[in-house]
Structures are given as structure tokens and as C-alpha cells.
From TrEMBL:
This is DUF982 domain-containing protein. It comes from the Bacteria. The lineage of its organism: Bacteria, Pseudomonadati, Pseudomonadota, Alphaproteobacteria, Rhodobacterales.
Length: 99
């Protein structure tokens, strides 16, 4: 199975235990949302739907990342990077030069 990376990893701190979870792929995010999420609200359900659509190639990867971060915020997770919403980094071969 091919895993789809979500750009820069997101490190979440669990709201009650304080343990850290590093999420690097959308499959990991989906697993957390479906099986280990501390609450069951609209943002969680929306993130599951948006990530599933992105994995089926009918949704936006950036939208899926945004939905996951929104669900993490409403679930009480803290993040070292303050849950910044960043698009995946472009590979060096495609980066523009400042000519």
C-alpha cells in the first residue's frame, strides 16, 4: 500500500496524557480520527470525509491537511508548531530560483 505524505509532519500533544503523536501520512491521520480520537464532533467527521476524498483522488490534499488540523484544534490537541496550516513543500527540483 502506498501512503500519501501530508507535507511537513504534524506533532500533536494528547490533551489528557501529554503523550506526543507524530503524523506524517494521511493514512495515519485517518487511523487516529477513526479509532483513537478523544471526541466525536462535526470537525472530526468532516476531517474523516475530506481525508477519505483526498485518498480517493477526488479531494484536495491541502484541504485534507486543513480539515485534520481543525479537528485536532477542536479536540484539544496542542502542537509544537501551533498547528500551522502549510501546503506540502515542493521538491527541490521544482523550486523556483530567484533569477
Amino acid at each position: 500500500m502506498i501512503e500519501i505524505h501530508m507535507g511537513s509532519p504534524i506533532t500533536l500533544q494528547h490533551p489528557t496524557s501529554g503523550s506526543r503523536i507524530k503524523v506524517t501520512t494521511f493514512e495515519q491521520a485517518l487511523y487516529l480520527l477513526e479509532r483513537k480520537w478523544p471526541n466525536n464532533d462535526f470537525n472530526r467527521a468532516n476531517a474523516v470525509s475530506v481525508i477519505s476524498s483526498a485518498l480517493d483522488c477526488i479531494g484536495s490534499i491541502i484541504g485534507a491537511r486543513h480539515a485534520f488540523i481543525t479537528a485536532a484544534r477542536t479536540a484539544g490537541y496542542n502542537d509544537e508548531q501551533d498547528l500551522r496550516i502549510l501546503p506540502p513543500a515542493a521538491p527541490a527540483a521544482f523550486a523556483r530560483s530567484a533569477d
